[in-house]
Amino acid sequence: MPDTVAAQPEPAAAGPAPVPLAGRDYRDPTALTQWVKGLLIVTVLLDLLGTGSGFMEFAFLQDLAAGTLGGDFEAAANANDMRQQSIGVAQLVLWIVTGIVFLTWIHRANRNARALGAKDMRFTPGWAVGWYFVPIMSLWKPFQAMREIWQASAEPGNWQVVRTPALLGWWWALFLGAQILAQVGYQLSKSIDGVDSAMRASAFITGSDIVSVALDVAAILLVTRIAANQIWQAKTVEVF
After folding, report:
1. Is residue 5 domain-resident?
2. What is the pTM of this model?
């Protein structure tokens, strides 16, 4: 009788191989985060300089209103205006540069969160940036996008249940406060008709500088913690 050979089962098809982290569009956020932090530190220093200059201007206006201003009025006024304008231009240039780098960081942080495995995120990388430029909606949508980035960076696999810290709320409140104070100060500065109106404009602009210092510190802490979470997740999470 011929020998019979039992049929051998075919090996099961291998499941999909894990996709390497580098293949999921993840980029180490360290360098970009350092750029953001560096620019924000310079911004803090410039805002502190603006605050000091604002107090000097307010004191000058007080002396002018009280009639106690000594020396050459025209020279003192020109020196004040030149100082304030120089600091204002420097702040504007730095604000634009820092804004571009910060928005680039937001775009990359959103993409990284997806690469780390976060599913069903509501905000795309583009809209996490784009909402800053949409009137009215920019009052809350960028905050929601940043909150989602925080959650997805902290726990990509179950990000919807991650609670966010008070730091996030403070960051956004300070952002809105600084913008409101700056806009009010700017509008007041366009209709100055005397010392009193000049003092009101100066007070709002200086207030914006003070709030901006706190905002910059909050932003530094925010990007640092999100980047740290992403770096840690990149080392511990197996992405499929």
Report:
1. no
2. 0.87
CB crowding 22-38: b at 16 or more within 10 Å, else e:
eebebeebeebbebbbe
Are the beta carbons of 23 and 171 closer than 8 angstroms? no
Task: Report pLDDT digits (tens) over 151-169.
Answer: 999 999 999 999 999 999 9
Is the pLDDT confidence value at 8 over 50? no
Token output for 238: 């197996």
Nearest to 177 by CA among 219, 139, 145: 139
For the chain, the average pLDDT equals 90
- Domain total of the chain: 1
Looking at residues 31-53, what average pLDDT do you find?
98
Per-residue tokens: 80: 């004040």
Residue 1 lies in a domain: no
174: containing domain = 26-65+73-236
Q: What's the CA gap between 1 and 237, in Å, rounded? A: 58
Q: How far is CA 189 from CA 10, 26, 64, 103, 108, in A?
A: 82, 46, 17, 29, 38
Rounded-to-5 percentages of helix, strand, coil across the chain:
75, 0, 25
The kind and range of the H/E element at 7 are: none
For a pLDDT cut of 90, what percent of the chain falls above it? 79
Closest listed residue to residue 118, CA positions, set 57, 84, 162: 162
Q: Is 152 helix (H, G, I), strand (E, B) or coil?
A: helix
Q: Is residue 7 part of a domain?
A: no
Name the pLDDT band for 6 (thresholds 50, 70, 90): very low
3-state secondary structure of 84: helix
Cα–Cα distance, 78 to 155 (Å, whole number): 56
The DSSP 8-state label assigned to residue 177 in this structure reads H
Whether 229 is covered by a domain: the verdict is yes
